[in-house]
């Protein structure tokens, strides 16, 4: 049976098509999900894609977090469903308290759009199994509210439990504490990051590398092995 | 209807680059003597019915779960006017 990866579209989501495409290129069946539909249509994993859902009104991700689809996503994520939040999706996951901390305006107040080097700090999550621990990758980064913050105790806890999944390399592009680019929950099924792996899945575009594709092949392998 | 105001501010320990940008612009515009600026949000709620303890409790809950993200922000609820 084909593995089904669902991608949620909220009003203002931009990168849902790229995420669906990445899922297909990895060998999954891409399934579009709609923010007002609670039904996840038997998907095996969910991607919350990037963009500016609800115009980032109030706070990035704050309104989307209460959408009907998120009720089911939150419930299923707690039960082990693999969920990946990219950029705005990461912001939604922190607002939904599936991941700790919060995202704030970049410290320099500029929108960034660049190729960003990252180090994979945890290759044991549902979404990173196809990377080597410590592997350096390059994927696009584009955001306004990318500064990851959490209190010291939470940061120490994340470090101690190996839950910092990705760290910015060479330069910290937005003032994120401890150079954190992405984190995972304790179970390893929920991962969020600011950079965009779904934009780096074909050699033709972007960095010319396919450093983002392993996110999608990782979850596929994980699901196939589990079934 | 009564107006209830919810003020939301970033916690003191959280860096506020927007406030800093405003603060840095002030001397250039001839406004001296401002050592620091913090920028926040103000919500004005027009409340139907009496603003009793039950209504205030609901507004408090609303602020805590939605208007503010208490990971990074503090909030204050004030009854401003009966009109």
UniProtKB/TrEMBL annotation, chain A:
Pfam family, one: GATase_5
Keyword Nucleotide-binding: yes
Residues spanning the signal sequence: none
Xref: PROSITE patterns: GATASE_TYPE_1 (PS51273)
Regions that span the bilayer: none
Keywords attached to this entry: ATP-binding, Cytoplasm, Glutamine amidotransferase, Hydrolase, Ligase, Nucleotide-binding, Purine biosynthesis
Role description: Part of the phosphoribosylformylglycinamidine synthase complex involved in the purines biosynthetic pathway. Catalyzes the ATP-dependent conversion of formylglycinamide ribonucleotide (FGAR) and glutamine to yield formylglycinamidine ribonucleotide (FGAM) and glutamate. The FGAM synthase complex is composed of three subunits. PurQ produces an ammonia molecule by converting glutamine to glutamate. PurL transfers the ammonia molecule to FGAR to form FGAM in an ATP-dependent manner.
Alphabetized HAMAP family for the sequence: PurQ
Protein name, entry field: Phosphoribosylformylglycinamidine synthase subunit PurQ
Organism from which the protein derives: Streptomyces antimicrobicus
Gene that this polypeptide is encoded by: purQ
TrEMBL record, chain B:
Function: Part of the phosphoribosylformylglycinamidine synthase complex involved in the purines biosynthetic pathway. Catalyzes the ATP-dependent conversion of formylglycinamide ribonucleotide (FGAR) and glutamine to yield formylglycinamidine ribonucleotide (FGAM) and glutamate. The FGAM synthase complex is composed of three subunits. PurQ produces an ammonia molecule by converting glutamine to glutamate. PurL transfers the ammonia molecule to FGAR to form FGAM in an ATP-dependent manner.
Domain of life: Bacteria
Record keyword Disulfide bond present: no
Coiled-coil region: none
Pathway note: Purine metabolism; IMP biosynthesis via de novo pathway; 5-amino-1-(5-phospho-D-ribosyl)imidazole from N(2)-formyl-N(1)-(5-phospho-D-ribosyl)glycinamide: step 1/2
Chief location category: cytoplasm
A GO molecular function held by the record: phosphoribosylformylglycinamidine synthase activity
Catalysed reactions, as listed in the record: N(2)-formyl-N(1)-(5-phospho-beta-D-ribosyl)glycinamide + L-glutamine + ATP + H2O = 2-formamido-N(1)-(5-O-phospho-beta-D-ribosyl)acetamidine + L-glutamate + ADP + phosphate + H(+)
Enzyme class label: ligase
PANTHER family per the UniProt record, alphabetical: PHOSPHORIBOSYLFORMYLGLYCINAMIDINE SYNTHASE SUBUNIT PURS (PTHR34696)
Alphabetic keyword roster: ATP-binding, Cytoplasm, Ligase, Nucleotide-binding, Purine biosynthesis
Subunit structure: Part of the FGAM synthase complex composed of 1 PurL, 1 PurQ and 2 PurS subunits.
UniProt protein name: Phosphoribosylformylglycinamidine synthase subunit PurS
Family statement drawn from the similarity comment of this UniProt entry: Belongs to the PurS family.
Protein localization: Cytoplasm
Record EC number: 6.3.5.3
